[in-house]
Amino acid sequence: MERYNRQLVLPQIGEDGQRKLIGARVAVIGLGALGSLSSILLARAGMGHIVLIDRDVVELDNLQRQVLYGERDLGEAKAVVAGRRIGEMNSSVEVQPFPSDLIPKNVDDMLAGVDLVVDGLDNMKTRFVVNDYCVKNDIPFVYGGAVATYGMTMTIVPNRTACFECLFPSLPPAGSVATCETEGILNTVPATVSSLQVADALKLILGEEVGGKLLTYDAWLREINEMDISRNEDCPSCGRKEFRYLTEDDADLAVSLCGTNSVSISAKGTERIDFDSLEARLAKIGDTRRGEDILKFAVDEYKMTIFQDGRVLISGTGDTAKARSLYSRFIGD
Ligand SMILES: [Zn+2]
User: Fold this and answer.
1) What is the pTM of this model?
2) Containing domain of residue 323, as a range?
3) How far is it, in rounded angstroms, from Cα 278 to Cα 19?
4) Fewest CB within 10 A of the end CB: N or C in the chain?
């Protein structure tokens, strides 16, 4: 208890509250900029059990903002490094690292029994899967996102507040989402957003009422706004309880092409890609070339051929999880 002295004197936490935190089981999904800081703060605050999920490895350009990692971690799985680092910060925290891609098939293995989920994801598609799982199983989901100089967060308490799908009714068309790869990111933005997320996570464990408001923040303009988001009674997730993102298996959409060191990723149900805007964004960070109904993009050792219907052929890797990660980062989903 002694290590938590500064929390014990807080009337909002105290000894009873601290015991609740020690007994809590939380998941941080996505261990990039947001997830790095969220997991550090949760561990230092004394969460008893932390599940750490991420499919990527540490890369040099992550170090600008992903505070869990250092130069010696380059090339290592983020979830594994995160587990080790968290253990050094607070050995009384039980960590459970999953260095894998969260898909409908394995979401239950990773999230079953958690009290809440803190979002550190870099793509919308996985957020829809997590939202469906959380609504279905009555688990609060603390959404957060950050890109360029702005970010946002909303805490979702299933069946009481709006859910993620009430907020974003449909999956955005492939190639239309701003990503940190193409728009850049100021490192103070995720620091602020994850602090707001963790404050709500602590309040949830302590039994406080939170959620239902979308907070947006712009670090450059020093602007913070909050708006009420109302529930959509016809929401396929929290209204009609269809949970369709849990039944569509993304694993089938990414196919490794034998012997070619490449992966084909199909985009399901998306509109035609706007090549002009996507090319303008990708040209800032790699080489682009237009063909008839295709857009070619090369960055590092990877080459992507993007088709108008959203299908992307990625060469330079035969690993489907890696390919999906590249798709999320450069095309956006
Ligand atoms: Zn909903």
Assistant:
1) 0.85
2) 250-331
3) 49
4) N
